[in-house]
Amino acid sequence: MTAEAVPFLELSRAALEEREALETALLACVRRGRYVLGDEVAAFESEWAAFCEAPFAVSCASGTDAITLALRAFGVGTGDDVLTVSMTCAPTAAGILRAGATPVFVDVEPEHLTMDASRLEAALTRRTKAIVPVHLYGRLADIDAIADFAKSKGLFLVEDCAQAHGAGLGGRPAGSFGDAAAWSFYPTKNLGALGDGGAVTTARPEVEARIRKLRVYGYATGNDADEAGWNSRLDEVQAAALRVRLPRLTARNARRARIASRYDAAFAAAAPFLRTPPPARAGETPAHHLYVVRIEDRGAFRTRLAAAGVETAVHYPRAVHEQPAFAPLPRGPLPETERAVREVVSLPLYPQLSDDETGRVIGAVTVSAALTRA
User: Fold this and answer.
1) pTM, entire model
2) Fewer beta carbons below 10 Å: N end or C end of the chain?
3) pLDDT in tens, 307-326
4) Any idea of the CA torsion for 77, 168, 42, 13, to the nearest 10 degrees?
């Protein structure tokens, strides 16, 4: 009998692990009869702020909205430039554009694939007002250098932490290095809801207050809006689900780390034909959101893994600046970004991946890498 394929990601496994707790929490929401901005949302915001070691957390409808809200809270908007990367998912740029600002793309480091701090000076314009670095695949960008640069230039720093739940550097959690951090709770994230959701964390009370106003139409009191906001609320059901899952996040991240460690050890002999993720930065604790390898003949590699019953994905097949909607945006040369998007392959990595399935991934990748070498 042929073994079933190893799924790239199977979200139902997590739901089965916590079925009773989820059902209890969601039914309680239904019985209370309040579905928006109620006790569950308030409790989750408090718990998420504590987890992130942030004084404030404000939830919202998505990670994209979190970027927009954070930038708007700092007064970033029409006529302003925001330095970011193209080696990311489109929501990073979309969130900047929705704030009214213009993303300006900076190339990435060749190994970590996160913002290259040495290229920030050349990307500056007279209109630059903020920087949005992305902590990609659960690995932190060179955030100390980026934060130092932002401070020296008087720029706001908003960390895109959509893939960095539980990551840290030097004993500090992701999201604590800038003026604010944007989080996504899309179902595939390390801390995922049962639908869309997001949050902004910050240490600045005036930023928290403004985001709370902007996420509900700009209402200052009652139904009176003193500036134009929009509807970006996390609902009670999603907050309840996130509260069930948050206490499990640390253990689930530890399971991700163990799988990643097995991959690292097994694939070391496949270099240089297969490039594995770089070692963690000094003092870094990755969240291991994705395990991404690089190989020149990606198509053949993925085909061989599929034939062996191992599903893979590509994060991301096209850089943001290569997509028609974002092609007109300003940028300098992005050679590392453009090389990476043609080589990256994401392997299965999630807490519910069994030891046997992990071994099957290792076996398939090892054989495929050997064929590439031959």
Assistant:
1) 0.97
2) N
3) 999 999 999 999 999 999 99
4) 110
